[in-house]
Sequence to fold (481 residues):
Amino acid sequence: MKLANPNLLKSQNYIDGEWRDAAGTAEVRDPANGEVLGCVADGSAADAEAAVVAASNAFPEWSRRTAGERAAILKRWYQLIVDNSDDLARILTLEQGKPLAEAKGEILYGASFIEWFAEECRRAYGQTIPTHNPAMRLSTIRQPVGVVSCITPWNFPNAMITRKAAPALAAGCTVVIKPALETPLSALALCQLAEEAGLPKGTINVVTGSDSPGIGKVLTQDPRVAKFTFTGSTAVGKLLMAQCASTVKKMSMELGGNAPFIVFDDADMDTAVQACVATKFRNAGQVCVATNRIYVHESVHDAFVQKLRAEVAALKIGHGTEDGITMGPMIYRRAVDRVQGLVQDAVEAGAKIEIGGEPLPNGENYFAPTLLTGVTDAMRVAQEENFGPIAAVQKFTDEADVIRRANDTPYGLAAYVMSENIRRAHRVVEALEYGMIACNTGVFSTTVAPFGGNKESGIGREGGVEGMAEFYETKYCCLGV
Fold:
């Protein structure tokens, strides 16, 4: 892998400010062609425990530093990421598959969290509370929770780390990160730049490894860990939550979704179609907030499908490093097989393939961007988070009915509403049981706003002022005078 800054290619775990080997190694492959990019340390539960010890030892000194001192180091880290964004994007594309332009966007999006929280930590205000007793003075202060452990996914291997580590470090916490073994190189490159920025040893640690149960048990049950944060599936999240209960840890969980995309008859069709493409086919549909169920009013259904089909046909599929590519491969073969199974199930139940619907010969992990019509709520493609490039379209007739259908799911992460009627837009936004709702746009994620879901889509928020609060404890003081 050729980089302008070859120092970013690391293969060892980063523990207590040192690059350490593990007992074994694990291959990292390019999902577009199966080529081996390199090998990384295949860490163990013992390595995870060493990282927790390092973070615990580093916490007292880091937490005592002023917010300004922490902010200065984090801003150096931010600038180094920006300066190396082309190399970081290339690493991300090669190990994850998304097109280079998308990867570069993720790098800058991820860096923005470091900049934002470096500034936000200066505003960790307490309160002076009006007293109930003239002989007492009441106040609160905010203090960092302690050691924070993180498990991050492969679909956004840069941004999901910075969205967790930046507020934790800014608040005065220390962190231990287990990235997905499919995409460890991005995490290790971030650590190299964090070291260059001057983060003290032990403040940030990364353990890569295939023993997810063993490493996960340490990160969720070690009593030295005060908070656990996870992005991934709801099923795995529930297991990790149960493990955290043994030591009553603070938790943040960003879990699965089943996002509805509602197109009303008064929507601007061009806006709706562009928004749908943006949210559905970005990263080959491997996005937690990607559209999953597309509800289109029956009076505009055919026009919407016609326009959407043209946009899907125009997508250019291939290796993310090639010019003009707009969609890359899926992460591995079993993801392709699962998506194919969802399409076959829908067709057998009466859905129609308008375009796509099958794996592509580009490589073993490519699946054609797919448009289905005639979909019903009973089909698996509507019941499950498909996490792939399937646009599944259904018809609806009235507002109350589509709200009921959109809410009829245990998930509540993101939803999309397309309407030019401002009154309707407000009604529907307020009625939908989701943590985040985008109206007349397909892309809404930003550093400055909270990200998170309701129901079985998670606990807590990342980003915005709410994201900073997740890493503080509020301490109350009652002073007799």
